[in-house]
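Quarterly update from the structural biology core.
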Amino acid sequence: MSAPIDWHARAASLSLNGQAFIGGRYVPALSGKRLDCVNPATGKVLTQLAACDAEDVDQAVKVARVAFEAGSWSRMAPRERKKRLKAFAALIAGHTEELALLETLDMGKPIRDSLAVDLPLSAQCIDWYAEAIDKVYDEIAPTAPSAVSLIRREPLGVVAAVVPWNFPLLMAAWKLGPILAAGNSVILKPAEQSSLTAIRLGALASEAGIPDGVFNVLPGLGETAGQALGLHMDIDAVAFTGSTEVGKYFLQYSGRSNMKRVGLECGGKSPNIILADAPDLDAAATSAAWGIFYNQGEVCNAGSRLVVEESVKDRVVEKVIEVGGAIKVGDPLDPATEMGAMVDAGQTERVMGYIEKGVAEGAKLRLGGKRIAADGCFIETTLFDDVTSDMTIAREEIFGPVLATLAAKDIDDAIKIGNDTTYGLAAAVWTRDINKAFKVSSALRAGVVWVNCFDHGDISSPFGGFKQSGFGRDKSLHALEKYTELKATWIHLG
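Predicted structure, tokenized:
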């Protein structure tokens, strides 16, 4: 048996790169400006990042456009593109420990989760889309014998992928897989709070044989680099995951520039509905606890609203408190830690503000509610009971380990509460009655509905939302639709 890894020692010897990756090489921001990259568990600066802005965006777009028009990737034989994308996936898997450590240092999630979840799923995602490259066929329309109509998928061109800080590598993989599989050039813009794994991907992509200029990475602030990408006249599409507020900005940027295609996976306030006839109430409650406290609650589809039928609510809440109270919160580099640090001080203060508002509006604080350490961004697992749908903590996305529990009189009331939100990303229902399961899942306005589980699925199943949770789908073959154009070629045969 191998000795346990000393992650603190690994972190101390790790070489960190904060530069942009443009045209196959690492470069500083043209302005020379830099941003601090801070470890949220300690408050200490890890390194400095290139603070890219509009000039850097323009440079990256020019390089990406030249690569696209040259056809070194866009017109590469599908089998060869597949080979290189699979090599990229293999390199990600081969650097699991390094990338997991970067992820944990950068945004505070437990190393156990970076190793067991983020890294394998990221590599699997890239590999899955690589395998799809030579298996997705074009079409021929059913025309009269005098004509042939070819319906072909063509790559869009230059795509900007703007990804969030909660799952930096995995959300990047969800974008990069189909963008690159379709033959596009890409500019990856990581969140300023968590850029290290994205930057490291640049060298791995180059090593895998992805041509220079096809894969570019621009760290920087959203209001500078992100906005410049949204407004650029030579970017064909923006794929964004993040808050609904910022998603709306990208829609405006599209209208103010070249009407670029925009795909949005935005916020959520997912209802997790437990009916009295759930097959196992303890299992449902345990899943509900992890559905909100996993990844510090920094999950877009977190089950942040627990909707429970009145007759079993007290039992379910007590079990959630038991499970949530036992979760070990602490040092993200400790393999025993189950919940780490919030991503930064700003998000920590934001979550604490919501907890204060919940108390002020009359919700009953049953678990947690406090910061754990003054020198790090740690918050206790927190549960509010007796929440009503008009309370702020039931309506706004908190993005932290805060659960709002609401009582439902019956199945119809549960559906009404579940849909009483501007969001529509995900939902769940727990029942042993297949008729109830079908009724609730059909009635809920959400892009993903789980029955007798929460946050299950794999790369073959699409993910995305309704309403102000956005539009377009990540994962599955449907994701390719965001990054390809359909071209119909009508051939008159005479």
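The radius of gyration is 23 Å.
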